[in-house]
Amino acid sequence: MAELSTLARPYAKAAFSYAQQASDLAGWSAALATAAAVSQSEKVRELLENPQLTSEERAGKFLSICSDDLSDSGKNFIRLLAENNRLPLLPEISALFEELKAKAEATLDVEVVSARALSDAQTQQITQALSKKFEREVHLHSSVDEGLLGGAIIRAGDTVIDGTVRGRLAKLAEAMNS
Q: Are 40 and 91 in contact (CB under 8 A)?
């Protein structure tokens, strides 16, 4: 995966820079998400890997599928990726673009998995605490995992906070054994 990130990063940065200058981060975000979804289709992957097609033909076929969702600059970006045989990197480019966008907008998507549905007060309390901790606007997405005995797992970027009963018991057992 590190190799894909390394290859995709310059394209994501270029797309982000262009989108930021054009004040169209949301438009580029949507366009890249669409293109990434299209590129993950099995039939499209076969098309992209077909050695008999030229880069122009690959770009043309790819754009025929999703050109309605792309601006002229987005279409040029797809042609550039096709020319450099980088269309399969679209999912990684889209993910890196989203990271850059979130950093620029000072936002953070946080996933909370809890044993029971969170009340509005709990949601607000967690959002405020994480906003203060990460110094960013937090967008909280919660879900329920009935397999948890109690507590919650919070995933915010690379940070994972395990506040489940099972996680706390494991930490206690580890502390007692060391």
A: yes
Q: Cα 42 from chain centroid? A: 20
User: Is the domain 2-102 a CATH 3.40.50.150 member?
Assistant: no
Determine the angle formed by the axes of helices 55-66 and 25-39, rounding to 10 degrees: 110
Q: Which CATH architecture has domain 106-177?
A: 3-Layer(aba) Sandwich (3.40)
Helix, strand, or coil (residue 89): helix
Q: What share of the chain is helix, strand, coil (3-state, %, to 5)?
A: 65, 15, 20
Sequence letter at residue 175: A
Backbone angles phi, psi at 137, to 5 degrees: -75, 130
Q: Summarize pLDDT for 35-67 with one digit per residue, the tens.
A: 999 999 898 888 888 888 888 988 888 888 887
Taking the C-alpha atoms of residue 15 and residue 98, their distance in angstroms, rounded to an integer, is: 11
Assess contact for 148 and 113: CB atoms under 8 A. yes
Q: Where are the domains of the chain?
A: 2-102, 106-177
Nearest CA among 58, 32, 29 for reference residue 45: 58
Alpha carbon distance 2, 63 (integer Å): 28
pLDDT tens by residue, 118-149:
899 999 999 999 889 888 888 889 999 988 88
